[in-house]
Amino acid sequence: MNPSAKRLLNIEPFHVMDILARARAMEREGRSVIHMEIGEPDFPTAPAIVQAGIVALQTGHTHYTPALGLTELRAAIATNYPEQARPDASRVAVTPGASGALQLIFAALINPGDQVLMADPGYPCNRHFVSLFEGQPVAVPVDATTGYQLNANLVRQHWTKRTVAVLLASPSNPTGTIIPTKELDEIIRTVEARGGVLIVDEIYHGLVYAEEAMTALSYSQNLFVVNSFSKYYGMTGWRLGWLVAPISHMSAIDKLAQNIFLAASTPAQYAALTAFTPEVQRELAKRREIFRERRDYLLPALRELGFEIPLVPQGAFYLYADCSRFTQDSQAFALELLEKTGVAITPGLDFGSHRAAQHVRFSYANTLENLQEGVSRLRNFL
Ligand SMILES: Cc1ncc(COP(=O)(O)O)c(C=O)c1O
């Protein structure tokens, strides 16, 4: 007998992993690959954070912390929010990445059959998290007319008796677009009026190139906010994130965290205490400028090649491009591009089904030099 759960039928692997596996194999064969498929900063973790992690290990911080995280770190996270948005530290839970935070939130909110609205295209794991807890992810198709984001109208249109929550990500993965503050405020009121819960994934906050993105906590304290040390803080491999929840849900979150993962990594938590120091913040601000320069190079270069990117993405490190001028099968296009030129990109299929075969995602988490080389190979290929 080989038992396996039915829920696996609703959970897809990352299609980009096929690309990444092929890219790695090509590199082993000695071929040069330009990575524009990767969803993490190319910079190493800031030295001061690394050093704090080493000291934590050397001084014996190798035991469990409380399930909701180190008190000092919860306080530091809370204090880092602007004053008018600042939650009490008791509402902050430190988690194994934003991934851990999203799982705790969905575990705390979803009953079997409950619906959660989310944008398509969107971050692929979200629909799978909802399925994991036997809820029903409702992928709402979005396009450039709404900045590739949900808005209050779409929420009203897709709300049913079974809807319990709406999930937003601003800036978004894969589009890098942000939800304008007025729109965010209207979504909050719309969800509240229906007795639902709003979850806002702010993992790409910090990596915003226009004016600073406002946290949803500036508009309401009665929602869930997810964030992470992965992207802006450059700590993907340390597996550390957080959530802010209404106080009414904190004992549920605590109980779930105790059971599901006990606590986030202890040395990583001690290291992250250093992330908010002026020295590290200065370094991160410099890196943000580098990301902006890369975006400002890659966006016009891809448009010139014939990719359609209708909006200037304001954040994250992705460009979501309509490739229908070249193909109606973005997965085959990405594989052929890799095979023939060594340029790795992510097919739209990873982010949902709405016009996925006509889209690809370019990541600019790579050096300007490599991006230029990638564009030159793309030009020859096309
Ligand atoms: C929108 C979004 N949310 C959450 C995550 C998960 O990040 P982590 O678990 O590393 O914090 C990612 C990672 O790519 C993401 O793009």
How would you describe what is shown here?
The chain is globular and about 55 Å long. The relative contact order is 0.18. It is an alpha/beta fold and 382 residues long. The longest helix has 28 residues, at 278-305. A 7-stranded mixed beta sheet has the order 2-8-7-6-5-3-4, sandwiched between helices. It has helices spanning 16-28, 47-58, 71-79, 97-109, 124-132, 152-158, 181-193, 250-260, 266-272, 278-305, 330-341, 368-381; strands at residues 34-35, 92-95, 115-120, 136-141, 163-169, 197-201, 224-228, 241-244, 318-322, 343-344, 346-347, 359-363. It folds into 2 domains: 6-44 and 279-381, Aspartate Aminotransferase, domain 1; 47-276, 3-Layer(aba) Sandwich (Aspartate Aminotransferase, domain 2), CATH 3.40.640.
Which regions have little confidence, pLDDT < 50, spanning 5+ residues? Answer: none
Q: Hey, roughly how much beta strand do the residues contain?
A: 5-15%
Looking at this structure, what is the CATH superfamily of the largest domain? Type I PLP-dependent aspartate aminotransferase-like (Major domain)
What overall form do the CA principal axes indicate? globular
How big is the Rg? 21 Å
